[in-house]
Structures are given as structure tokens and as C-alpha cells.
């Protein structure tokens, strides 16, 4: 009985509360970076006044949204720099002659000087996209259930590892309700298989399993297998739902690179340790797509455009959070002060602030400014603005509660306090939204 109860609790947790994984490589950090964050929190806690915080759901949601928004802005700025800093002028940009077929990103040495008349490039013809494996189950009446009430289980084997899934069928359950429950259970487990429920429009539904990865295994086998032959609970669910049969085998990408045919397990791969390319579609027969580097000035303008896009998304989302919360103007006041500090310098080189606080680009003026002497000097106001923006994003990420409605209880005696290594901050542990 205890084991049965534990199984129910665990499966309910997986289907309801299990976290998702971070989606960016910039969410991983070196030990020194984590140590720096820890020291910053200690320093802040040492001198920060004591507050009475509103810990209601509205305040908590606002703080988490602000933290996540700041994290996304930091990731955007990091992606524009070769070393993850605010130097957005040093990351070279790749181009693709047909982005409906191929998109490209430069991942090589951005310190290398590129001669615009001799830019390295590659010609690619996409003959076949890499594909995932799909197991589409039987379409069965959505409102019925022909399996008897019991505890069932089945195994999914992927990457040489078996994962067992246990579930209960009780009186009143239907085929579709169980398919949806299994879909949530599999998706929350994060094993590399995505589940969904499909309907045929005639009152029938089927459980669909699809691998997250693409490409055939080296031995030609399937990416994942579903079976209940050796499972620990009652068997029969696999055959009943029909999820063991592969309805679409995985396949490799096939393409020609400068006339030589190649294959890849994924639609994203690197070329010559310089380009990261992603296949988006199949080429017309005999038609090639060119991938290469933009000249330095065009790379600068591309980086600045991406920066403006990321900044505008940051401002718009924060404005929405602040308006919904409606109890703190601190963020708006700080952003207005930052805009006033850089408005004139940015205006003179092609970036101007609109009334809602977002930026717009005058590309002709920006290109003209970049071509006047050393672009690193003429466009230095953008680098300075980005540095200030990055500092602000780090402040928000470090202490989003600073932007909520708070009541000061006591100010500490400046310079005569000691950090408490066991209490890094009064909101420690509350600000993680599905990752840590």
C-alpha cells in the first residue's frame, strides 16, 4: 500500500510540477562567475536595510517575471559578444543567401581581420532534412476505456537507458484522459521523447510519441523503443494504445558542401569550426545556398540591430509587468534616467528613443557613422550604453525584490556590518522559475 501511494505521489509530481530545463547555453556558468554572484549577494545583504515585504502572489509573480526578463536580456547581450561581455562590436555576423533554406551563425575567431573582398564562404545544397522518430498510436474512441482498472507500466528505452512509467486506470477514466495523463507524465520526465494527443475528428484519439533528437543511430536502430514485455506492473497498455510501432523512422540530413555530398544526424552542425548552420528546408534541385561572412561594418550593424531588438523586448515586457503590478515606479524611473544619460550621444549616430522608451534605428546614419574612421571609436556610445544596460540587468536579476512595494523597517549602520554566509538574501530560494 505504501509503494502504491508513493507511485501516485511521484507520478502526480511529474505530471504537474516538474521543472523545465533552461534553453540557453548562457544559463551555464563557470565556478568563478557563480562565486562572483554569491559575493555580490553577500555584499548586498550586508548593507541592505531591513524591509517588510509583500509576499503575496501578485508580488511574487512580478519579481520572478522581472528576474526572468533581466536574464533574457543578459543572454541576448552575451550572444552578441565573442567573450560574453558587453563588447557588441566584436562579434562577426554570418549571412545566408537564402534563409528559408539555411540560417548561419559565425562561431570562429572574431579577432581575425576579414578582407571584404576575400570572405570565406561555402555553397550548400540541401537534399534531405534530418527527421525525428515518430510512434503514432492507435486511434481509439476518446470517451471509452476497455482496459480494466489496475496499475499498469511500460518501458521506454532511449540512449541505452530504460525508463519505466507507472500509471493507474480507475473507474470513470477514458481513453483520452489516460492519453493526456501519459503525455504529461512522459513530457515532464525529460527523457528525450515528446508526447502529445491527436484527434481524427471522428471522436477518436491517439497517443503520439516523437523523439527530440534526429538522425538514424550508427547501428541503424530506432532512437527509442516502447515495450511492456519486462515491466514490473500489469502489461497490456502498450498494445492497447498501439505505441510500440514506429510510424516514421528517423533520418539523417543529406546535403552537398561545395559539390561533395555529406550527411549529418542533426539539422544543425558546424562547418570548418567557423559556422554553425541550421537547415530550414530542402533546396530546389541544383540550386545552392551561399553561406559566408558579412564585412565588418555590416556585422556591426547586424549586432546593433539584434541589441536593439533585445532591448525593446526587455522594455516592453517590463512595462507590461510593471503596469499589471501597479505598485512601483522604480524601474521606470531608473530606465528614464539611463535614457537621458545616453540620448544625445545615441541620437547623433543613428539610435533614437521613442516615447515608450524603445529604440529605433536610422540605418543610413548608423552605417555612415560606422564608416567614419575607426567604428569602435565612433560607435563607442553604443558600447557604453550596452555596458550600463548589462549592469542594470544584473542588478535586477540579483535582487528583483528591489522593484516591489517595500516598507523600510530599519537602516543598518553603514560600514559596520558583517555578511552572514548562511543567509545570502531574504528572498534566497524563491526566485528560481524552473531551473537552478
Q: What percent of the residues sit in helical stretches (DSSP H or I)?
A: 25-40%
Q: Give the strand line-up of the largest sheet.
A: 2-16-4-12-13
Q: How many H/I helical runs?
A: 10
Largest sheet report: 5 strands, antiparallel
The number of distinct structural domains comes to 3
Strand % is 15-25%
Mean pLDDT over the full residue set: 83
- Strands, total number: 19
Structural class: alpha+beta
Give the overall shape, derived from the CA principal axes. Answer: globular
Integer-rounded radius of gyration: 27 Å
Question: Spans of 5+ residues with little confidence (pLDDT < 50)?
Answer: 13-22, 428-436
Q: Distance between termini?
A: 34 Å
Order of helices and strands: HHEHEEEEEEEHEEEHEEEEEHHEEHHHE
Please specify the SSE layout and strand pairing.
Layout: H1 2-16, H2 31-47, E1 50-53, H3 57-79, E2 94-96, E3 102-106, E4 121-128, E5 132-136, E6 140-141, E7 150-158, E8 161-169, H4 175-189, E9 193-199, E10 204-214, E11 224-227, H5 237-241, E12 253-257, E13 260-264, E14 268-271, E15 275-279, E16 289-293, H6 296-325, H7 330-347, E17 351-353, E18 359-361, H8 363-370, H9 375-378, H10 380-398, E19 406-410
Antiparallel strand pairs: 1-19, 2-16, 3-15, 4-12, 4-16, 5-10, 6-10, 7-8, 7-11, 9-10, 12-13, 14-15, 17-18
Helix pairs in contact: 1-4, 3-6, 3-10, 6-8, 7-10
